[in-house]
Design goal:
The protein is α/β, with parallel strands linked by helices and 365 residues long. It has two domains: 180 residues, Rossmann fold; 146 residues, 3-Layer(aba) Sandwich (Rossmann fold). The chain has eleven helices and 15 strands. A seven-stranded mixed beta sheet has the order 3-2-1-6-7-14-15, sandwiched between helices. Helix 4 links the parallel strand 6 and strand 7. Helix 1 packs parallel to helix 9 and helix 7 packs across helix 8. The longest helix is centred in the middle third of the chain and has 22 residues. 49% of the residues are buried. The protein binds 6-O-phosphono-beta-D-fructofuranose. 6-O-phosphono-beta-D-fructofuranose binds next to strand 12.
Protein backbone atom coordinates (compact mmCIF):
# COMPACT_ATOMS: atom_id res chain seq x y z
CA UNK A 1 0.00 0.00 0.00
CA UNK A 2 1.32 3.47 -0.95
CA UNK A 3 2.63 5.33 2.09
CA UNK A 4 0.87 8.60 2.96
CA UNK A 5 3.57 11.27 2.60
CA UNK A 6 1.83 14.61 2.55
CA UNK A 7 -1.50 15.90 3.81
CA UNK A 8 -3.21 19.26 3.45
CA UNK A 9 -5.21 20.94 6.19
CA UNK A 10 -7.59 23.88 6.13
CA UNK A 11 -9.96 25.72 8.44
CA UNK A 12 -13.18 26.83 6.76
CA UNK A 13 -16.44 28.45 7.83
CA UNK A 14 -16.80 30.79 10.82
CA UNK A 15 -13.89 30.69 13.23
CA UNK A 16 -14.11 29.51 16.83
CA UNK A 17 -11.79 28.88 19.77
CA UNK A 18 -9.92 25.58 19.43
CA UNK A 19 -9.02 25.72 15.73
CA UNK A 20 -5.34 26.21 16.50
CA UNK A 21 -5.46 23.38 19.03
CA UNK A 22 -6.66 21.03 16.25
CA UNK A 23 -4.06 22.27 13.74
CA UNK A 24 -1.39 21.64 16.38
CA UNK A 25 -2.67 18.15 17.21
CA UNK A 26 -2.89 17.14 13.53
CA UNK A 27 0.60 18.46 12.78
CA UNK A 28 2.27 16.94 15.86
CA UNK A 29 0.71 13.51 15.29
CA UNK A 30 1.39 13.51 11.54
CA UNK A 31 5.01 14.63 11.91
CA UNK A 32 5.98 12.75 15.09
CA UNK A 33 4.08 9.47 14.74
CA UNK A 34 3.81 8.96 10.98
CA UNK A 35 6.52 11.08 9.35
CA UNK A 36 3.89 12.80 7.20
CA UNK A 37 4.43 16.37 5.87
CA UNK A 38 1.67 18.88 6.52
CA UNK A 39 0.66 21.76 4.27
CA UNK A 40 -1.83 24.38 5.51
CA UNK A 41 -4.08 26.18 3.03
CA UNK A 42 -4.75 29.82 3.82
CA UNK A 43 -8.26 31.23 4.26
CA UNK A 44 -10.17 27.99 3.80
CA UNK A 45 -11.13 26.91 0.30
CA UNK A 46 -9.91 30.22 -1.09
CA UNK A 47 -6.36 29.00 -0.43
CA UNK A 48 -7.09 25.78 -2.31
CA UNK A 49 -8.48 27.68 -5.29
CA UNK A 50 -5.54 30.12 -5.38
CA UNK A 51 -2.90 27.61 -4.20
CA UNK A 52 -1.96 29.74 -1.19
CA UNK A 53 -0.46 27.64 1.57
CA UNK A 54 2.25 27.35 4.20
CA UNK A 55 4.31 24.37 5.25
CA UNK A 56 3.32 23.42 8.77
CA UNK A 57 6.36 22.35 10.74
CA UNK A 58 6.68 21.66 14.47
CA UNK A 59 7.92 25.23 14.90
CA UNK A 60 4.82 26.68 13.23
CA UNK A 61 2.49 24.96 15.72
CA UNK A 62 4.59 25.66 18.77
CA UNK A 63 2.76 27.85 21.30
CA UNK A 64 -0.59 28.01 19.49
CA UNK A 65 -2.66 25.69 21.72
CA UNK A 66 -4.28 28.50 23.68
CA UNK A 67 -4.59 31.04 20.89
CA UNK A 68 -8.09 31.90 19.61
CA UNK A 69 -8.90 32.21 15.89
CA UNK A 70 -6.89 30.23 13.34
CA UNK A 71 -3.30 30.73 12.22
CA UNK A 72 -4.42 29.64 8.73
CA UNK A 73 -7.20 32.18 8.38
CA UNK A 74 -10.69 31.11 7.30
CA UNK A 75 -13.47 32.04 4.96
CA UNK A 76 -17.20 31.29 5.10
CA UNK A 77 -18.02 32.60 1.62
CA UNK A 78 -16.03 30.44 -0.80
CA UNK A 79 -17.46 27.19 -2.14
CA UNK A 80 -14.99 26.14 -4.90
CA UNK A 81 -17.87 24.63 -6.85
CA UNK A 82 -19.64 28.00 -6.93
CA UNK A 83 -17.25 30.95 -6.66
CA UNK A 84 -18.86 34.39 -7.08
CA UNK A 85 -17.06 36.62 -9.61
CA UNK A 86 -17.79 40.07 -10.89
CA UNK A 87 -17.97 40.15 -14.70
CA UNK A 88 -19.22 43.24 -16.59
CA UNK A 89 -20.72 44.59 -13.37
CA UNK A 90 -22.68 41.36 -12.76
CA UNK A 91 -22.01 38.60 -10.21
CA UNK A 92 -21.69 35.23 -11.90
CA UNK A 93 -20.77 31.89 -10.33
CA UNK A 94 -17.97 29.66 -11.60
CA UNK A 95 -17.07 26.07 -10.74
CA UNK A 96 -13.33 26.19 -9.93
CA UNK A 97 -13.10 22.66 -8.56
CA UNK A 98 -10.77 21.58 -11.41
CA UNK A 99 -8.34 24.26 -10.26
CA UNK A 100 -8.52 22.84 -6.72
CA UNK A 101 -7.83 19.29 -7.97
CA UNK A 102 -4.85 20.57 -9.97
CA UNK A 103 -3.44 22.28 -6.91
CA UNK A 104 -3.84 19.10 -4.85
CA UNK A 105 -1.93 17.21 -7.58
CA UNK A 106 0.79 19.84 -7.87
CA UNK A 107 1.40 19.72 -4.12
CA UNK A 108 1.36 15.92 -4.10
CA UNK A 109 -1.27 15.76 -1.37
CA UNK A 110 -2.56 12.32 -0.44
CA UNK A 111 -5.33 13.51 1.87
CA UNK A 112 -7.09 16.73 2.88
CA UNK A 113 -8.07 17.27 6.53
CA UNK A 114 -10.92 19.80 6.50
CA UNK A 115 -11.87 21.47 9.76
CA UNK A 116 -15.27 23.09 9.53
CA UNK A 117 -19.01 23.14 10.02
CA UNK A 118 -21.91 22.11 7.82
CA UNK A 119 -20.95 24.31 4.84
CA UNK A 120 -17.47 22.74 4.91
CA UNK A 121 -18.91 19.22 5.15
CA UNK A 122 -21.13 19.89 2.14
CA UNK A 123 -18.11 21.03 0.10
CA UNK A 124 -16.13 18.03 1.41
CA UNK A 125 -18.90 15.72 0.17
CA UNK A 126 -18.66 17.24 -3.31
CA UNK A 127 -14.85 16.93 -3.31
CA UNK A 128 -15.07 13.25 -2.27
CA UNK A 129 -17.30 12.71 -5.30
CA UNK A 130 -14.44 14.14 -7.41
CA UNK A 131 -12.02 11.60 -5.95
CA UNK A 132 -10.35 13.62 -3.18
CA UNK A 133 -9.42 11.72 0.00
CA UNK A 134 -10.89 13.71 2.90
CA UNK A 135 -11.08 13.47 6.67
CA UNK A 136 -13.23 16.08 8.42
CA UNK A 137 -13.14 17.50 11.92
CA UNK A 138 -16.34 19.10 13.27
CA UNK A 139 -16.14 22.65 14.61
CA UNK A 140 -18.76 25.28 15.30
CA UNK A 141 -19.97 27.39 18.18
CA UNK A 142 -23.49 26.38 17.09
CA UNK A 143 -23.00 22.69 18.07
CA UNK A 144 -25.46 21.83 15.31
CA UNK A 145 -23.55 19.19 13.36
CA UNK A 146 -25.26 15.88 12.80
CA UNK A 147 -23.35 12.74 13.81
CA UNK A 148 -21.46 14.12 16.80
CA UNK A 149 -22.54 14.85 20.37
CA UNK A 150 -20.29 17.91 20.53
CA UNK A 151 -18.35 20.24 18.26
CA UNK A 152 -15.29 22.02 19.58
CA UNK A 153 -15.74 25.79 19.95
CA UNK A 154 -19.15 25.37 21.54
CA UNK A 155 -17.93 25.12 25.13
CA UNK A 156 -15.80 28.28 24.80
CA UNK A 157 -18.67 30.21 23.20
CA UNK A 158 -20.99 29.05 25.98
CA UNK A 159 -18.49 30.20 28.61
CA UNK A 160 -18.31 33.68 27.06
CA UNK A 161 -22.10 33.96 26.70
CA UNK A 162 -22.59 32.81 30.30
CA UNK A 163 -20.14 35.39 31.60
CA UNK A 164 -21.99 38.10 29.67
CA UNK A 165 -25.33 36.98 31.14
CA UNK A 166 -23.80 37.03 34.62
CA UNK A 167 -22.72 40.63 34.07
CA UNK A 168 -26.08 41.71 32.65
CA UNK A 169 -27.75 40.56 35.89
CA UNK A 170 -26.48 43.40 38.05
CA UNK A 171 -27.48 46.23 35.72
CA UNK A 172 -30.87 44.56 35.14
CA UNK A 173 -31.39 44.49 38.90
CA UNK A 174 -30.28 48.11 39.43
CA UNK A 175 -32.60 49.52 36.76
CA UNK A 176 -35.51 47.10 37.19
CA UNK A 177 -35.45 46.31 33.49
CA UNK A 178 -35.98 43.39 31.19
CA UNK A 179 -32.61 42.67 29.61
CA UNK A 180 -32.36 40.67 26.41
CA UNK A 181 -29.12 38.92 25.53
CA UNK A 182 -29.15 37.76 21.89
CA UNK A 183 -26.70 34.99 21.05
CA UNK A 184 -25.64 33.32 17.80
CA UNK A 185 -26.41 29.71 16.98
CA UNK A 186 -28.34 29.92 13.71
CA UNK A 187 -31.27 27.49 13.59
CA UNK A 188 -30.17 25.57 16.69
CA UNK A 189 -30.72 26.72 20.26
CA UNK A 190 -27.80 24.91 21.95
CA UNK A 191 -25.83 28.08 22.68
CA UNK A 192 -28.86 30.06 23.86
CA UNK A 193 -30.27 27.28 26.06
CA UNK A 194 -26.88 26.16 27.41
CA UNK A 195 -25.85 29.67 28.43
CA UNK A 196 -29.42 30.49 29.49
CA UNK A 197 -29.42 27.62 31.98
CA UNK A 198 -25.81 28.19 33.08
CA UNK A 199 -26.34 31.96 33.42
CA UNK A 200 -29.65 31.73 35.25
CA UNK A 201 -31.78 33.30 32.51
CA UNK A 202 -35.47 33.65 33.36
CA UNK A 203 -36.75 33.30 29.82
CA UNK A 204 -34.89 31.55 26.99
CA UNK A 205 -36.17 31.62 23.44
CA UNK A 206 -34.78 29.07 21.01
CA UNK A 207 -35.48 28.30 17.35
CA UNK A 208 -36.82 24.84 18.21
CA UNK A 209 -39.77 26.31 20.18
CA UNK A 210 -41.53 29.18 18.35
CA UNK A 211 -42.48 31.66 21.08
CA UNK A 212 -45.79 33.27 22.00
CA UNK A 213 -45.10 36.82 23.19
CA UNK A 214 -48.12 36.60 25.56
CA UNK A 215 -46.36 33.83 27.57
CA UNK A 216 -43.10 35.81 27.54
CA UNK A 217 -44.85 38.90 28.94
CA UNK A 218 -46.75 36.75 31.43
CA UNK A 219 -43.46 35.35 32.74
CA UNK A 220 -42.05 38.87 33.21
CA UNK A 221 -45.22 39.99 35.05
CA UNK A 222 -45.15 36.92 37.29
CA UNK A 223 -41.63 37.84 38.36
CA UNK A 224 -42.84 41.35 39.21
CA UNK A 225 -45.70 39.93 41.33
CA UNK A 226 -43.09 37.81 43.11
CA UNK A 227 -41.11 40.95 43.96
CA UNK A 228 -38.41 40.42 41.33
CA UNK A 229 -38.34 43.65 39.36
CA UNK A 230 -36.03 42.54 36.58
CA UNK A 231 -35.90 39.73 34.03
CA UNK A 232 -33.12 38.21 31.96
CA UNK A 233 -34.08 36.92 28.53
CA UNK A 234 -31.61 34.87 26.51
CA UNK A 235 -32.61 34.75 22.87
CA UNK A 236 -31.10 32.62 20.12
CA UNK A 237 -30.67 34.54 16.87
CA UNK A 238 -32.86 31.96 15.12
CA UNK A 239 -35.80 32.32 17.56
CA UNK A 240 -39.10 33.13 15.88
CA UNK A 241 -42.67 33.86 16.96
CA UNK A 242 -45.38 31.23 16.51
CA UNK A 243 -46.55 31.48 12.92
CA UNK A 244 -43.81 34.03 12.17
CA UNK A 245 -40.35 33.91 10.68
CA UNK A 246 -36.70 34.40 11.63
CA UNK A 247 -35.10 37.86 11.44
CA UNK A 248 -32.54 37.90 8.63
CA UNK A 249 -29.70 40.40 8.90
CA UNK A 250 -28.07 39.83 5.50
CA UNK A 251 -27.51 37.38 2.70
CA UNK A 252 -23.94 36.51 1.72
CA UNK A 253 -23.62 35.72 -1.99
CA UNK A 254 -21.72 32.53 -2.79
CA UNK A 255 -21.65 31.25 0.79
CA UNK A 256 -22.62 27.61 1.29
CA UNK A 257 -24.91 28.97 4.06
CA UNK A 258 -25.99 32.33 2.64
CA UNK A 259 -28.45 33.55 5.28
CA UNK A 260 -27.06 35.47 8.27
CA UNK A 261 -29.52 35.84 11.13
CA UNK A 262 -29.67 38.62 13.73
CA UNK A 263 -31.93 41.28 15.19
CA UNK A 264 -34.71 39.23 16.79
CA UNK A 265 -33.75 40.66 20.22
CA UNK A 266 -34.79 44.16 19.16
CA UNK A 267 -38.06 42.88 17.73
CA UNK A 268 -38.88 41.16 21.04
CA UNK A 269 -37.89 44.25 23.07
CA UNK A 270 -40.38 46.36 21.13
CA UNK A 271 -43.10 43.77 21.67
CA UNK A 272 -42.48 43.73 25.44
CA UNK A 273 -42.44 47.52 25.83
CA UNK A 274 -45.55 47.77 23.70
CA UNK A 275 -47.51 45.09 25.55
CA UNK A 276 -46.56 45.54 29.21
CA UNK A 277 -44.53 48.78 29.31
CA UNK A 278 -41.51 47.21 31.01
CA UNK A 279 -38.36 49.09 30.05
CA UNK A 280 -36.24 46.70 27.97
CA UNK A 281 -32.68 46.81 26.66
CA UNK A 282 -30.91 44.52 24.20
CA UNK A 283 -27.33 43.28 24.09
CA UNK A 284 -26.33 41.38 20.96
CA UNK A 285 -23.26 39.29 21.77
CA UNK A 286 -22.65 38.55 18.09
CA UNK A 287 -19.09 37.58 17.16
CA UNK A 288 -17.81 38.17 20.69
CA UNK A 289 -18.63 34.52 21.49
CA UNK A 290 -16.34 33.35 18.68
CA UNK A 291 -13.31 35.05 20.21
CA UNK A 292 -10.94 34.41 23.07
CA UNK A 293 -8.93 31.47 24.29
CA UNK A 294 -10.46 27.99 24.13
CA UNK A 295 -11.71 26.46 27.39
CA UNK A 296 -9.89 23.36 28.69
CA UNK A 297 -12.83 21.23 27.50
CA UNK A 298 -12.44 22.59 23.96
CA UNK A 299 -8.64 22.21 24.02
CA UNK A 300 -9.01 18.58 25.08
CA UNK A 301 -11.73 17.80 22.52
CA UNK A 302 -9.89 19.60 19.71
CA UNK A 303 -6.69 17.69 20.51
CA UNK A 304 -8.48 14.33 20.67
CA UNK A 305 -10.18 15.08 17.33
CA UNK A 306 -6.89 16.11 15.70
CA UNK A 307 -5.06 12.98 16.81
CA UNK A 308 -7.91 10.68 15.71
CA UNK A 309 -8.11 12.42 12.32
CA UNK A 310 -4.48 11.55 11.60
CA UNK A 311 -5.02 7.97 12.76
CA UNK A 312 -7.84 7.71 10.18
CA UNK A 313 -5.47 9.12 7.56
CA UNK A 314 -2.84 6.51 8.43
CA UNK A 315 -5.43 3.71 8.28
CA UNK A 316 -6.64 5.14 4.94
CA UNK A 317 -10.19 5.40 6.28
CA UNK A 318 -11.11 8.29 4.01
CA UNK A 319 -14.46 10.04 3.71
CA UNK A 320 -14.94 10.06 7.49
CA UNK A 321 -15.65 12.76 10.08
CA UNK A 322 -14.30 12.31 13.60
CA UNK A 323 -17.03 12.61 16.22
CA UNK A 324 -17.80 12.35 19.93
CA UNK A 325 -20.22 9.67 21.07
CA UNK A 326 -20.69 9.78 24.84
CA UNK A 327 -17.09 9.82 26.10
CA UNK A 328 -15.58 8.16 23.02
CA UNK A 329 -14.04 9.54 19.85
CA UNK A 330 -15.49 7.67 16.89
CA UNK A 331 -15.81 8.35 13.18
CA UNK A 332 -18.83 8.56 10.87
CA UNK A 333 -19.10 8.60 7.07
CA UNK A 334 -19.24 12.19 5.78
CA UNK A 335 -21.99 11.21 3.33
CA UNK A 336 -24.22 10.27 6.30
CA UNK A 337 -23.85 13.64 8.04
CA UNK A 338 -23.26 16.33 5.37
CA UNK A 339 -26.18 18.67 4.84
CA UNK A 340 -27.98 17.60 8.04
CA UNK A 341 -28.52 19.81 11.07
CA UNK A 342 -28.75 18.70 14.70
CA UNK A 343 -31.21 20.83 16.63
CA UNK A 344 -32.30 20.35 20.26
CA UNK A 345 -34.83 17.49 20.45
CA UNK A 346 -38.02 18.69 22.15
CA UNK A 347 -37.86 15.78 24.60
CA UNK A 348 -34.19 16.40 25.45
CA UNK A 349 -32.94 16.67 29.01
CA UNK A 350 -31.80 20.26 28.35
CA UNK A 351 -35.37 21.36 27.63
CA UNK A 352 -36.79 19.29 30.50
CA UNK A 353 -34.16 20.70 32.85
CA UNK A 354 -35.03 24.28 31.86
CA UNK A 355 -38.73 23.62 32.45
CA UNK A 356 -38.10 21.96 35.82
CA UNK A 357 -36.29 25.03 37.15
CA UNK A 358 -39.18 27.25 36.07
CA UNK A 359 -37.56 28.81 33.02
CA UNK A 360 -40.04 30.19 30.49
CA UNK A 361 -39.32 28.91 26.98
CA UNK A 362 -41.94 31.09 25.33
CA UNK A 363 -44.63 28.44 25.26
CA UNK A 364 -47.21 27.23 27.79
CA UNK A 365 -45.44 26.20 31.00
O1 LIG B 1 -21.89 29.22 12.32
C1 LIG B 1 -21.23 30.08 13.20
C2 LIG B 1 -21.85 31.46 13.21
O2 LIG B 1 -21.17 32.22 14.16
C3 LIG B 1 -23.37 31.47 13.48
O3 LIG B 1 -23.69 31.30 14.84
C4 LIG B 1 -23.72 32.81 12.92
O4 LIG B 1 -25.08 32.84 12.54
C5 LIG B 1 -22.81 32.95 11.73
O5 LIG B 1 -21.72 32.08 11.95
C6 LIG B 1 -22.29 34.35 11.50
O6 LIG B 1 -21.54 34.38 10.32
P1 LIG B 1 -20.61 35.61 9.88
O7 LIG B 1 -19.29 35.43 10.56
O8 LIG B 1 -20.52 35.49 8.41
O9 LIG B 1 -21.29 36.88 10.32
Amino acid sequence: MKKIRRIGILTAGGDCPGLNAVIRAVAKTAINDYDIDVVGFLDGYQGMVENKFINITSDVVSGILTRGGTILGTNNRIDPFRVPMLENGKTIYRDLSDQVLNNIDKLGLDVLVSIGGDGTLTVSGKMIARGVNIISIPKTIDNDLFGTDLTFGFDSAMATATEAIDKIHTTAQSHHRAMIVEVMGRTAGWLALGSGIAGGGDITLIPEIPFDIEYVCEAIKERTYAGKYFSILVVGEGAKPKGGDVVVQRTVAGSAEATRLGGVGNVIAEMIEDKIQVETRVTVLGHLVRGGIPTPTDRLLATRYGVEAVKLVARREFGKMVALKGQDIISVPIEDVAGKTRIIPLDSSWINTAKSIGMCLGDKM
